[in-house]
Design a protein that fits this description.
The chain is an alpha+beta fold. The chain folds into 2 domains: 82 residues; 197 residues, Bira Bifunctional Protein, Domain 2 (BirA Bifunctional Protein, domain 2). It is built from 13 helices and 10 strands. A 7-stranded mixed sheet has the order 1-5-6-10-9-8-7, with helices on both faces. A hairpin with a 2-residue loop joins strand 7 and strand 8. It starts with a helix and ends in an 8-residue tail after the last helix. The structure holds 3,4-dihydroxyphenylalanine. 3,4-dihydroxyphenylalanine (DAH) binds next to strand 9 and strand 10. The site of 3,4-dihydroxyphenylalanine has 11 residues, from strand 9 and strand 10. InterPro entries: aa-tRNA-synth_II, aa-tRNA-synth_II/BPL/LPL, Phe-tRNA-synth_IIc_asu, Phe-tRNA_ligase_II_N, Phe_tRNA_ligase_alpha1_bac, Phenylalanyl-tRNA_Synthase, tRNA-bd_arm. It catalyses: tRNA(Phe) + L-phenylalanine + ATP = L-phenylalanyl-tRNA(Phe) + AMP + diphosphate + H(+). Keywords: Aminoacyl-tRNA synthetase, ATP-binding, Cytoplasm, Ligase, Magnesium, Metal-binding, Nucleotide-binding, Protein biosynthesis.
């Protein structure tokens, strides 16, 4: 038995596994449940007591040396296997795509913040609107051609049993402008008002680079005693300086809206060529950004406000237009196509 042990000892000493499989074979051969060491211990049971004293020690040492060999290499191989399975933590990360704020949201937020500094508060109204709030209260007489200024999407009532007269009275439409929110606000509360009303509006227009069937507006309203056109000009002038930078020029051109008198459209010096003339401003040096005016006394009376005591101004601007001029976006369709290549360009804009 002793000579067998010394033979195996030499084998163990010389053993050097190259792979995890080599080591596994070694483990089974020596340390396995049916392995050499198990056999030797079985054999040990039947030797004489005298031999046992000597052999016991030898056998234990032999067992320990086999275990030590196994353990020494086991760590090597487990480390190696782990290393191949593990991620290399020194490699750069894969990164993940995070969403970006939509340019229209960024600009809306900026507009709101500018007017907030002047004491304007936010108000909202529904997108499906009745005739009164979208047209009649705003001094668009029924059958008046001014209603055609805005091609309207009418919303059909679910039941079709009413007479023509009833249908007309209860006509609903997708609001064509945020001016309807002015009416709702003035009906619901008492002056003074200083409010800003952002929202989505709809018009029955063919979709192209320059027109869309839905877009966004911000409506402004200021009603109090002794509000004048000078207040209107100063407020909008401040807005333009904040939005497009100091030195941006403004000019007001007479215009027509049923709900304001007098009415005006406001232009600013072209943000691209600074007034020198370019394709954006059609070589004029000016670009139109909004409509405005003093609220027509008829509108104030329609919502129960004393037009002798109170005056006010209103304005409405398209957020897409304001955004186009800020970022030089030439095609309106980009805003609603959700192409990440377009949207990603604004992700660094933190306002
Ligand atoms: N509602 C008008 C439009 O959609 C814009 C507008 C013009 C709003 C003049 C106003 C205003 O409040 O005073 O074209």
């Amino acid at each position: 038995m002793q000579s067998k042990i010394s033979q195996y000892t030499t084998e163990i000493e010389a053993f050097e596994p190259k792979t995890a499989e080599d080591l596994e074979r070694f483990r089974i051969r020596f340390l396995g449940t049916k392995g050499i060491i198990k056999d030797l211990f079985d054999e040990f049971k039947s030797v004489s007591a005298e031999e046992k004293r000597v052999l016991g020690k030898v056998l234990n040492q032999f067992k320990q040396s086999a275990e030590a060999k196994f353990n020494a290499f086991k760590d090597d191989f487990t480390e190696q296997t782990n290393a191949t399975n593990k991620e290399d933590l020194t490699l750069p990360g894969e990164g993940f795509q995070i969403g970006a704020r939509h340019p229209l949201s960024l600009v809306r937020k900026q507009i709101v913040e500018i007017f907030k500094r002047l004491g304007f508060v936010l108000a909202e109204g529904p997108e499906i609107e009745d005739d009164w709030h979208n047209f009649s209260a705003l001094n668009f007489p029924e059958e008046h051609p001014a209603r055609d200024m805005q091609d309207t999407f009418f919303v059909q009532k679910p039941t079709g049993t009413e007479s023509d007269e009833d249908t007309k009275q209860e006509a609903f439409a997708l609001r064509t402008h945020t001016s309807s929110v002015q009416v709702r606000l003035m009906e619901a509360r008492k002056p003074p008002f200083r409010a800003l009303m952002p929202g989505r509006v709809y018009r029955n227009e063919a979709i192209s680079a320059r027109a869309h069937c839905f877009f966004h507006q911000v409506e402004g309203l200021y009603v109090d005693e002794k509000v004048s056109f000078a207040d209107l000009k100063q407020t909008l002038y401040y807005f333009v300086q904040e939005m497009y930078g100091e030195g941006t020029k403004v000019r007001f051109r007479p215009s027509y809206f049923p709900f304001t008198e007098p009415s005006a459209e406001m232009d600013i010096s072209c943000t691209i060529c600074k007034g020198a003339g370019c394709p954006m401003c059609k070589q004029s040096g000016w670009v139109e950004i909004l409509g405005c005016g003093m609220i027509d006394p008829n509108v104030l009376e329609n919502v129960g406000i004393d037009s002798k005591k109170y005056t006010g101004f209103a304005f409405g601007m398209g957020i897409e237009r304001i955004t186009n001029l800020k970022y030089q976006i030439k095609d309106l369709r980009l805003f609603s196509e959700n192409d990440v290549r377009f949207l990603k360009q604004f992700e660094t804009e933190v306002i």
